[in-house]
Amino acid sequence: MTPQAKIAILQHLIQIPSVNDHEAQVADYIASLFAPYPQAKIEKVTYANGRDNLVVTIGHEGPQLGLSGHMDVVAAGDESAWTHAPFAGEVVGDQLFGRGASDMKSGLAAIVITMLEFLEQGTQLPGSIRLLATVGEETGEYGAGQLTDEGYADNLAGLVIAEPSGLDNVVYTARGVIDYKVVSTGKGVHSAQPENGINAIDNLMKFYNAVGPLMAKHTKTDPVLGGLLHNVDLISGGEQINSIPAHAELMANMRTIPAYPNQVIYDELESLIAELNKEDGVQLDLSYSFPEEAIPGDPQAPLVQLAKQISDKVCGHDTQVVGSGGANDGAEFLRAKADFTSIEIGPGSNTSHQIDEYISIKEYLQAIDFYEALVPAFLQQAQKPESVIE
Ligand SMILES: [Zn+2]
């Protein structure tokens, strides 16, 4: 494939405004690229109307390497603030602009093109590759969750997520996330007779005052990720100045580390809520939205080290083996039956989720060379008994 053809595929992907939805259009386009190759097994896995995950499998008997990317992008925000229209895929010099240019349609295009070039060239792979293109990564990783539940990751020997780490970073461990909400229900009455009501704000504050010190007791720190983070970021309650509030709520964001599995935190939050609810008039309800486990990792794992060596060689830099403060689809895929290493490495710039998001075309093309070298090397290595990942 010519560099122009590779750039055109990325532009086409950016021109589909898959903002937290409409991933089916991306899936349809990618599927159309594989359509000329009957040996590619194409499966669409519908999450919701207009939202299809896409799984494409190529290759032969032997170990299977997963290549994954999400098809959704975050909103463009104020489009008039962009110098280059967010869904145009405009090229200026070495920069290709647009929402998703960095996070992560360049990574997605690069893994798709890697597979297309193997097909085009009739490469005999010592195993298989499975493209896992997901919906809804930015809003809860539920596409990856669905593919995992349906068994699409059960035969993986390794997983590479093409998120925008930059090719000079291999991410082998990542923080998890717990977003939770506490709703306090009281009884609204005129504020001249508070004794007849129940103040939902007062009761919510009981939780607020207790949860900070409770979470601060988690003093273990991860050598690369740091400590557990807990922040109450949203709080609201009350209706008007002379009414006892019947409703108050808060939302908190936690960034977890492997030392504290999410269940440990759930148990603590739930017992605090249960304790407070024993008090007269207190009614607190706790809920979570799309929590993610932290990804533990071993910097010496064969896939991590191989990715570093190959990126060093292909790109001529010293690739760093690092941790990430953000969760990724790997947290879901790792729930699969197979036991494998999940890494994150892909082309990117520091403009993800920002206006005038862009990717360096040089880095994008280099990423394709990197994946094309990594895939056969990994499959070869995974076949050797001493490095088979049990
Ligand atoms: Zn992303």
Automatic annotation (TrEMBL):
Cofactors (names): Zn(2+); Co(2+)
Keywords: Amino-acid biosynthesis, Cobalt, Diaminopimelate biosynthesis, Hydrolase, Lysine biosynthesis, Metal-binding, Zinc
E.C. number(s) listed in UniProt: 3.5.1.18
InterPro entries: ArgE/DapE (IPR010182), ArgE/DapE_CS (IPR001261), Bact_exopeptidase_dim_dom (IPR036264), Peptidase_M20 (IPR002933), Peptidase_M20_dimer (IPR011650), Peptidase_M20A (IPR050072)
Domain Peptidase M20 dimerisation: start-end pairs: 173-280
Catalyzed reactions per annotation: N-succinyl-(2S,6S)-2,6-diaminopimelate + H2O = (2S,6S)-2,6-diaminopimelate + succinate
Pathway terms, separated by semicolons: Amino-acid biosynthesis; L-lysine biosynthesis via DAP pathway; LL-2,6-diaminopimelate from (S)-tetrahydrodipicolinate (succinylase route): step 3/3
Name of the protein: Probable succinyl-diaminopimelate desuccinylase
